[in-house]
Amino acid sequence: MSGSGSRSGRDTFYFVVLILTLITMIVGVTFTFYSLMASDKKDSTIVKTGTLSINYIDGKKINASPLVPMEEPSLNSSDFTYKKSFSVTSDGTLDQTLDLYINITSNSFANGDLRFSLYDSENVKIATGSFPKSGKILMKSGDYLKSGETKSYTVLIWLQENYQNQDYDKESTFVGGFEIEANQVKLK
């Protein structure tokens, strides 16, 4: 009989430990639930997102062929230049900074002969430079775009006049595309 008494005592002990464990778990879950409910504020669960819409007004690719050597053209020039316009809209709830690139797939023009200017929506020149044979060129960095705002840009591409025979550029081609990177502005 002493064997069944110790077994019954052991079962009672395990049963008491199980009940205490369940009570501790219920108290912990209840405390956590009420703590979260008490600390919950009206706007504490709002999720903010950053979304961009890009409108390539005349297509995404840049294919420039019939360029003639010239000095830097004005924004209103249409002869012997390549003009590309696009706009960027922040559709999300976050402010962002934009980095505008041209990603060059191929450029058979002589180094430095093919140039660009970037204009903003007020027709103010904000960048200028020349294209390498390939790679990614940063045209504008850190341009601030508020939530709900749209910014427009125009890129002019031309063959820079160097006052020497440039027949070597006659059959040259340029292929590339725009790349826009947005960086979320940190909330305070």
List keywords for this structure.
Jelly Rolls; 2 domains; five-stranded antiparallel β-sheet; four-stranded antiparallel β-sheet; 9 strands; 20% helix
How would you portray this structure in words?
The chain has one helix and nine strands; from the N terminus they run αβββββββββ. The chain is of the alpha+beta class. The chain folds into two domains: about 1-45; about 50-185, Jelly Rolls. Strand 5 (about 115-120) and strand 6 (about 125-130) form a beta hairpin.
Question: What would you say about this model in short?
Answer:
This protein has 188 residues and is of the alpha+beta class. The chain folds into two domains: 1-45; 52-184, Jelly Rolls. It contains one helix and nine strands, in the order αβββββββββ.
Describe the secondary-structure layout.
Elements: H1 2-39, E1 52-56, E2 61-64, E3 82-90, E4 96-107, E5 114-119, E6 125-130, E7 135-145, E8 150-159, E9 174-184
Antiparallel strand pairs: 1-3, 2-9, 3-8, 4-7, 4-9, 5-6, 5-8
How many structural domains are formed by the residues? 2
Strand order, sheet with most strands = 1-3-8-5-6
Give the strand content: 35-45%
Mean pLDDT equals 81
Largest sheet geometry: 5 strands, antiparallel
Globally, the shape reads: elongated
Give the structural class: alpha+beta
Q: In the CATH hierarchy, what is the architecture of the largest domain at level 2?
A: Sandwich
The helix/strand series, from N terminus to C terminus, equals: HEEEEEEEEE
Query: What kind of oligomer do you see?
Result: single chain
Q: Fraction of residues in helices? A: 10-25%
Distance between the termini: 73 Å
Query: Can you count the helices?
Result: 1
Low-confidence parts: none
- Which fold name fills CATH's third level, the topology of the largest domain? Jelly Rolls
Strand segment tally: 9
Q: Mind telling me the CATH class of the largest domain? A: Mainly Beta
Radius of gyration: 33 Å
